[in-house]
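Title: Comparing notes on inverse folding

I've been comparing how different people in this forum approach sequence design from structure. To keep things fair, I'm posting one structure and asking everyone to reply with a full sequence. Here's the target:
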């Protein structure tokens, strides 16, 4: 394959030649072979495939919410060519058998993937570390979907075991001792939780944010990085939702990720979202959201990852205490960030680093993250002059809804995974085509 006249993130216009699964050349004036497919970019942006290190594709056990096929289609349509799946499935990925069950299902993926191992009181670290796990985590320091929260002693043991195995630990940092029970006490007797709003029920709208406090996250981060420092282990902080949490990560010298929903939504959106805005950690104040975005733009934040956590509309329209936490987002991450480039809020190279180059570096996936000879041919072609409105009906997750409804995004016209076209969209007609399931575990054959 030869992609001609492509604009790269650094402003150069180059031809990109692909041989097999790898990028063979990035030059000007390349001549196609007789049997080579030529794709004219005509000055459109060619972006490295995004690496989303935090998704929940829900299989095994919850295929009514998402499957590896639907989740990976959503990823491909959003320009994500590598995903990392989290362990809170059924069975959980905490044993060798649990890993094997998930690995079999992951063969349906259109995009490359990693599979994280999880920690529970009955986990089997010896069997897990014998498998090609991507990392250990998301390790839950407070209960979330799947009830995998663990105590301090189990966390310290897990960190030491991961250190000995040379594996990074990703941490869901919330201290349940600092949750504000008074914020939800009035809801626990089953009383009416408020009138309907366009996307769900409000109870009041920000009760969940008031309950799972910012202080609970900040304290848990400080504790987690302290344990990691004592053990000389590598820790990465998942879905950091507060600027104070990001600052704590920087002070401790550990990496952190933030999500699109914490960057583009705040408690001010909860009257519209209702229970569809329930997530862990929750949405924060507009002031904290703006400060988090500032840290994104200035280089303080390391990674953007989605915490793609789909649930059905029926599940999310339950009461605030009954609705599950989580929102879909793997398809809208890169489009939202590219729209921020269009709005001159972010630099294009910064977006490249946040979703491709840095996650590939932090998690040691050397063939991903950049458009260079020798790297995997994971490529995304987009037209920055063609944004479109985000609509749930046009997305591909099984969830069937999005918290970003009505926002603008710049979506791919072409997505390539290791030299295979897995997604195309005609910008004129909107006609879409998906390619074959070529996804591969990035930890196999390293």
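Reply #1:
Here's my take.
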């Amino acid at each position: 394959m030869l992609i001609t006249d492509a604009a790269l993130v650094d402003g150069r216009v180059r031809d990109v030649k692909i041989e097999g699964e790898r990028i063979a050349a990035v030059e000007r004036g390349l001549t196609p072979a007789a049997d080579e497919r030529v794709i004219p970019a005509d000055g459109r942006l060619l972006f490295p495939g995004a690496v989303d290190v935090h998704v929940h594709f829900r299989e095994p056990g919850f295929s009514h919410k998402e499957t590896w096929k639907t989740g990976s289609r959503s990823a491909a349509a959003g320009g994500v060519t590598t995903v990392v799946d989290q362990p809170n499935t059924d069975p959980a990925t905490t044993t060798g058998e649990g890993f094997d069950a998930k690995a079999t299902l992951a063969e349906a993926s259109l995009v490359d993937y990693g599979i994280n191992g999880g920690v529970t009181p009955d986990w089997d670290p010896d069997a897990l570390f014998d498998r090609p796990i991507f990392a250990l985590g998301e390790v839950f320091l407070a209960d979330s979907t799947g009830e995998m929260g663990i105590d301090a002693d189990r966390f310290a043991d897990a960190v030491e075991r991961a250190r000995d195995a040379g594996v990074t630990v990703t941490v869901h940092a919330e201290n349940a001792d600092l949750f504000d029970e008074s914020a939800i006490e009035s809801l626990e007797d089953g009383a009416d939780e408020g009138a309907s709003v366009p996307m769900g029920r409000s109870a009041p709208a920000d009760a969940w944010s008031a309950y799972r406090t910012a202080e609970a996250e900040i304290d848990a981060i400080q504790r987690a990085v302290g344990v990691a420092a004592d053990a000389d282990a590598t820790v990465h902080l998942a879905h950091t939702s507060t600027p104070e949490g990001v600052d704590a990560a920087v002070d401790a010298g550990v990496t952190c990720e933030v999500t699109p929903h914490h960057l583009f939504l705040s408690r001010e959106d909860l009257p519209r979202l209702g229970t569809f805005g329930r997530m862990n950690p929750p949405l924060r104040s507009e002031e904290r959201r703006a400060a988090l975005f500032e840290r994104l733009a200035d280089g303080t934040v390391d990674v953007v990852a989605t915490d793609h956590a789909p649930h059905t509309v029926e599940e999310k329209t339950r009461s605030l205490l009954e609705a599950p936490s989580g929102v879909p987002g793997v398809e809208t991450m890169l489009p939202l960030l590219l729209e921020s480039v269009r709005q001159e809020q972010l630099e294009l190279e910064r977006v490249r680093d946040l979703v491709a180059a840095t996650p590939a570096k932090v998690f040691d996936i050397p063939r991903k993250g950049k458009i260079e000879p020798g790297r995997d041919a994971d490529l995304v072609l987009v037209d920055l002059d063609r944004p479109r409105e985000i609509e749930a009906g046009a997305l591909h997750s099984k969830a069937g809804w999005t918290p970003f409804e009505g926002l603008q995004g710049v979506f791919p016209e072409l997505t390539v995974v290791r030299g295979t076209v897995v997604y195309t969209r005609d910008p004129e007609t909107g006609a879409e085509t998906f390619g074959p399931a070529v996804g591969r575990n990035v930890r196999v054959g390293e």
